Amino acid sequence: MTGEPEVRTVLGDIDPAELGVTNAHDHLFFASQLLPGQELDDPVAAAHTLLDFRTRGGSALVQWTPYGLTRRTRELARMSAEIGVHVVAATGLHREEHYSPVILGRVIDGLVEEFVADLTEGTQPADLPDEPRTGPRAGLVKVAGAFHTIDSHARLTMTAAAVAHQETGAPIAVHLELGTAGLETVELLCEKLDVPPGKVILGHLNRNPDPALQRQIAETGVFLGFDGPSRANHATDWRLFDGLEALVEAGHGGQILLGGDTTTAAARAQPGASYLLTTLAPRLTELLGGDVVTAMLVANPARAFATSWLK
């Protein structure tokens, strides 16, 4: 790769130092057939969320919503410009269960082309596949594993993500189903498909609070996403602090990313994206120290989402 690393936001590429305090994994828009009635598809509510995040000291938000799940990138760009928060959007594909056969059928045979086009030309609504690519460019590829395994769909999407990375330099963010299959994901992406560990972000590690496994994953060099709390996974939230403390003590504080991962209307209302700054960060500061938490919110995401773009 050539050139200085930059973060690709919905308003264009920026110096990583401009990113600032970052919610490294969240959703302003998200709608799935698995969550009927809980859609995040209201631009006014999304704008209020982003404004509140900025008011609490937030500077950047990374939306992991991939193709076909209502990512609304044009709205993201409008809100980013009006509110003054950097926003990074995603291309990619989630688990197969999230999609109707119609949406999945449009892209499944041309994933690399779709991912690369979203990253380099501009995003396109899934319901308007023949429209010109006038949307903002995506800044990462989001894919997903299965529960405790890499199933055929995950293998297909991860392979396409790896090729898209090789062609563009884009970071790859991975939804680990309930925090599982982390080592299997690293083996596929980094060992078999030659993606550098520093270009891989594993999400939801807090949902499988196995300290030995988390440390083993950290030793591979990938970025470690701890995102929540989640109403669906609140039973593991209380173990987040012990897990982060252990990783920091083992020397892996520079790999940790923090996010809110709001995926439903109920979660937007409570605790909401700003919980990361109003409650979680202060508690972590008491436990780990301000410099460590600042790195998790500023320096680490600046490195995780920056790359020397090839296109």
From TrEMBL:
The cofactor binding remark recorded in the entry reads: Binds 2 divalent metal cations per subunit.
**GO molecular function list:** hydrolase activity; zinc ion binding
Q: Entry's PROSITE patterns? A: PHOSPHOTRIESTERASE_2
Q: Which residues bind Zn(2+) 1?
A: 25, 27, 142, 261
Which Gene3D superfamilies does this one have?
Metal-dependent hydrolases
- Any single Pfam family the record assigns to this protein: PTE
Q: Which InterPro entries match?
A: Metal_Hydrolase, Phosphotriesterase
Its needed co-factors are:
a divalent metal cation
Binding positions for Zn(2+) 2 per the UniProt entry:
142, 175, 204
Origin: domain of life: Bacteria
Sites where N6-carboxylysine occurs are at 142
> Which keywords label this protein?
Hydrolase, Metal-binding
Q: Which family does it belong to?
A: Belongs to the metallo-dependent hydrolases superfamily. Phosphotriesterase family.
> What is the protein's name according to its record?
Phosphotriesterase
Taxonomic source organism: Amycolatopsis rifamycinica
